[in-house]
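Why does this matter for the project? Reviewers at the last site visit asked to see concrete outputs rather than summary tables. In response, this paragraph embeds two records directly. Each consists of the residue sequence and, immediately after it, the corresponding structure tokens. Nothing has been edited or filtered.
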Amino acid sequence: MGSPFALFAPFLNALEEGVLFLDRERRLVEINRAATEMLGEERERVVGRLCPSLFKGTACARACLKRKDCTLLSSHERETPTQTLDVTLERSEGSRLTVRMWAILLPEAEPEACVAVILRDRTREVLLEEEVSERMRLGKLVGHGPAMRALIRELLRAAQSDATVLLQGESGTGKELAARALHENSQRQRGPYIRVHCAAFPEHLLESELFGHARGAFTGAESARMGRFEAAHGGTILLDEIGEISPAIQVKLLRVLQEREVERLGENVPRPVDVRVVAATNRDLRAMVRAGDFREDLYYRLNVLPIRMPALRERPEDVPLLAQTLLENFGKPSGRERVRLSEEALVVLQAYVWPGNVRELGNALEYALVHGDGEWILPRHLPAEVTVPADARGEEARTRYYRPSHMEEERTVILRALQAAGGNKVAAAKALGMSRTTLWKRLKRLGE
């Protein structure tokens, strides 16, 4: 290394972290050995190049090329805590490397360099995180946050029993996936798994679907037919949208749960069934019992092992892994499984509250795949309700999509956006659909 860095060269080259020194034009002045290995370039080939050319394809490089604030340096300029940024580098030989970056301002007396950029190799950490994430999957349920870990523990515990399970949660939280995971991890996994969408059938057809019918039991019943309970013998039956069944069906279902036998419509011959029952609903069955819309005795028969499905807004830390998994699944049929989410798009996704939960996230990603034609999903490819509506609708309309009803919830949403943006208030304000001034005022009002 040339003067004035020659004195510190042995020390800098002994570091595991990469160190790059930039001048005021953000041109590379010097680089240590670890940094050249991370970039996959020789020192002579990179010294003198502009910073964005060293980190092609990353969010910070795109911001610099568009003459915006440097993601790392802007935190110093605003006198906020030093920000770190995780990026994936595409090296010259084609390999990929995940690094954590942060910047340090050098004393003004330094004649050549004004900024030191530090790189830390996180590839092993990322592989470990991916391994842990793989372990934190149950069937097609994906997540590694506290809420998902607790859910997986509950499902695995319930899978060891034959007791009836009641899955409760908002629409789109994955109740059907949880039911299938219960079956696949139980002793009944080799038996049939039958799902009945109770809200999809009129009352007279639902009775036939569940319990079967004899020949001539009703007009059009030209032959006898077994019901779903009989078809699920030795396995598991999911009664989806259980809160939608009529009082008459509730009475007959109660008998099946009590006696473990069914009578086909038009018959009086009991048929024994060995079935594990899982019920699912997005309605409050306890409130329905109080209102007289659901039988109390049936509710207690179903509510043996209650499991609550967490909403997506309760587990924002799962959004990146979940979003990338969904994106890969949606991209496979069209050969676009290598499409990735940009850091800016992830900030937007983690800041949104997802009233439609995982189902809405999936819809947003399918939309983005259709509207994005490159290898990266950017915020502009996402649906308007997830990002920021047109400025013409005004500040109130721009922020309405995420606004909670209580101050405590508003604090949670804003702090989540700040965390997703790495503490960058500019990026957080953009993701929330408001100006920096508005965000500052809200933080002040919330005492943050």
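We now turn to the second protein, recorded in exactly the same manner.
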Amino acid sequence: MTTALVFLARHGRYVLVVGLVAGLLLPELAQRLRPYLPQMIVFLLFITAFRIGLRTAVAGVMQGFGVFKVAIFLQLILPLVAMGAMILLGVSGTTFGIAILLMLAAPSVTATPNITILLGYDPEPAFRLFVVGTAILPLTIVPIFWLSPDLGNLLGALLAAVRLLAAIWCAVIAAFILRRLTAPVLTAQQTKSVDGFTSLVLAVVVIGLMSAVAPALSANPYLVLGWVCVAVIANMGSQIIAYIVMLKLGWSTLAVPFSVVAGNRNFALFLIALPAATTDPLLIFLGCYQLPMYLTALVMSPVYNSRLKYKFKPSSQD
């Protein structure tokens, strides 16, 4: 079993591609998995927290307020700037405008630390930004929903944010306790095994997340193609821009995990607060959004390992 998990860890990027393909080719399986997505995502967070451990997580939080500043910029300043631009362009009330605004206002998806691992970088900064970003979500969404009536019910979004925060902390605390009791220090072999198991869980999760894409692809392939283009540009474009900015600021050790977070957001949280008329096209966007998300480890690896990072000199991380 350990050998198989280590093999999955070594080829984790391609395991995610298999999950994407399975989600498209096996729509019935995707529909069966869809109701269990919340539980699978929480379990994925549990595995990530177990791998990192309490000591590493606390040490990261104690390093400074850099992560807090990044979270505020990504989830509050950036979406407010985007909102202003979309109002000037007259697209703020369109499905496209709402989708982009929700993506920018959302915290990181739970999978970003795992994707960071597959890229070959330390997952702890991505995990830290995920936790901080989710913790401040009930505060950052207030001005965004208040200034944009197109986003729907503020109370619904707040309640969803609080429920998400409670689920996250329950999973994280349970994982830290289990790690403390069973494996206070993970060996290299154990770490690889956990990474391989994580890749397997991620592949199963993405099958369920693709449940809305296959039916839409059969009904209107051009609509799906359009949303795929939007998702790829929004996701990977955000990553590339964030990566360049992070390197320019000298945050070289944090550039990759923070950039992965910048492009991969948990905007599905907000769907329960939207009018029913906008839900269906946003669900298609959510499915299409999984393509660049789960291809990040494969497609973005050449970018993150390019000579671009050598053009900037490192400086303070705070």
